[in-house]
Structures are given as structure tokens and as C-alpha cells.
Amino acid sequence: xxxxxxxxxxxxxxxxxxxxxxxxxxxxxxxxxxxxxxxxxxxxxxxxxxxxxxxxxxxxxxxxxxxxxxxxxxxxxxxxxxxxxxxxxxxxxxxxxxxxxxxxxxxxxxxxxxxxxxxxxxxxxxxxxxxxxxxxxxxxxxxxxxxxxxxxxxxxxxxxxxxxxxxxxxxxxxxxxxxxxxxxxxxxxxxxxxxxxxxxxxxxxxxxxxxxxxxxxxxxxxxxxxxxxxxxxxxxxxxxxxxxxxxxxxxxxxxxxxxxxxxxxxxxxxxxxxxxxxxxxxxxxxxxxxxxxxxxxxxxxxxxxxxxxxxxxxxxxxxxxxxxxxxxxxxxxxxxxxxxxxxxxxxxxxxxxxxxxxxxxxxxxxxxxxxxxxxxxxxxxxxxxxxxxxxxxxxxx
Length: 397
Ligand code: GLA
Fold this sequence. Notes:
alpha+beta, binds alpha-D-galactopyranose
């Protein structure tokens, strides 16, 4: 649905004219489970977006309605829930609660949300809701924080309010992604660079249709396993604060000192950081074949060492092999279901989709959704365009 459509629905629902803010989902090309280890990631924003329409109210009520869910929520800003209520509105409430801790929300508001990002598929529908809501409520207050800060406060909302201990990758690229580019992010310093994706390559995203919703406990367990690795390795290398600080040589030297499971988790993270570096160089050099091979290695590592793949993800990755125009692919996002991402020549993308759907269905009996994507703009690009149109100048960066 376009912005005009949502505006009309809002006017019908609430009788006033809203402002509409949008933010995209993302697909991660390489660098999985490295963000919370202070490491490196290489995601891009994609064309699926979440829109949040907002208008102030005369009272202190927050009324939240979604095009995609039937339940409607009302809260009083004075008696705001402290923890999640267990519904779609949690991501908006989390953002409001983090913003409120910085400065009081100026007035009550009516909110209508519409999300296009497939839910539970590892394409960051939650980050898209958080970022679009943060922009909406900042506009209500007339304050805009710089985009990296917006990403951080959205991450905080998810960590503290929703209760998922996610890293910064999804929110950051939803804010700052750029069309035609992947974004290589240093998750410790938040320095980033834009890495061009060749025009003739598409990102074909294959949804296994197995939702990853149940995976929260495993995700947090992986984080703990990484922390345990750091604690043990710090006995020999006291300067180590996160797995980001550990080289392959240091890890292998102490392989015998780590419990086998912890060693496997650390091996994935340490080598995955290297793959991000190498992959970035390969893309800068236009070497898509090398990048594709690194994606394959990343998948094997996530499957065998980090143990976050699933039977369906493995089948989907395997199904791509040998198809014309295919450079490489892997599971993307947190894992345990969700999607694979595949680099495919633009001219071959349509037959690739037909064939992979067929192959996956033959093996699993499931009809997958497959999307042909290109790297899209993050929320900041659209805001900047809007500022230019309105010739107003809120500070973004
Ligand atoms: C989820 C989290 C991200 C990241 C990935 C794994 O998408 O939201 O922060 O940790 O898993 O790379």
C-alpha cells in the first residue's frame, strides 16, 4: 500500500490527517551472529517496508491500530506498561517507552501501522516497525536524533522492553541502508561504509515458510556461549572484550582449553568476521564469484559450528546449487527457519525462482514464497527527500 492509501485509511479511522513514516526490512548478505560479538556485518535494506501513520490527540491517550492485526490497543501515557504485553504493539510501546525516558512524549497520539515485511521470516519486520515508530514519535515531539542514535534506541527498545537480546545490525541498516549498496558495519564503533552491489545481480530471497518465532531461547543461549568463550580466552589474553578481539590463531592456540561446543561457536564468529572483510573486498573488486563462495562457507559454518540452521534452510540452500546465474547463497538472519539469500544474475532471476520453488516443494511438500529484491534505501534517505520537498531542515546526521 502506498502512503496515500494509508493516509486515507487513517483519516477514515481517526478523522484527522496523519504524517506517515516508513522504514524497511533487511537481508544480511554475510556476517551472521557477529553483531552482538562487536564484530562486522554486511546487510542491505530491502524493498519491503513498514509504514506508521501518526497524528496528535488532545488527550494523553495512545491509540494503536494495525492494518494487519485485528486487535486495537489504548494506553494512557501516564500509566504506561513497563514490560511487553505480548502483542504486535510491543515494538511501538518499546520505542515510546525508551523515548519517554529521554524526554516526555508531547501529547497523546493516534497511530495506524501497516507492515509489508513478512513476519517471522528473518527479514527484520520488528526493526522496521521500531524505526518507523521512532521517527513517527520523534516528529510528534519535534525532535530528530541522528540516525545512528535512532538505531541504538530502537535496539534498546527491543532489548529492554520486548526482551529480545538482539544486536544493532537490523535497526542500523533499516535506518541507514542505501539503494544499490550493502552496508558494512563495525558493530563496535558503528563506523560503516557502503559497498556497491553490481547492477546486474539480484538478491533472491527464498522463504522456507518455517517461522523462527520459537528461536528466542536459542538465540540468547548462543550469546551466552560466546560470552563464555570470551571469559575463558581472557585468561590468556586479558585485553579481549568480545570475540571481535580474538584472531583465528589465538583461538586455535587455545582450542584444547575450550569446551567443544564453546569452541565451535567461537570458531564460527571469528571466521565469519574474516569472511565479512574478505567479502567486502570481493564486492569492491566486482568479484561476485568469490563473494558467492564466501556465502557458501558462511552457511556451512552456521550449520555445523553455530548450529542455527534448520533442515528446511539446508534444503533451500542446496536447491540453488547448479541453477543458471547462481553465484552463492546462505541462510540469512538469526536462523532456525526464515529465509535464504541468493545472489543471482538479473537475467536468470525469474527462471531461478521457478526452479527453486519446484525443487523445494519436491523435497518438503511446502510452497515457498520467493522474492526478487535489490538493495533499497533505508529510512533516512526517504526522510531526507521529504525534507528537501518541504524545505524544512531537521538535523539527521
Ligand atoms: C537477528 C538479530 C540481529 C543479529 C542476527 C544474527 O536478526 O536481530 O541483531 O544478531 O539475528 O546475525
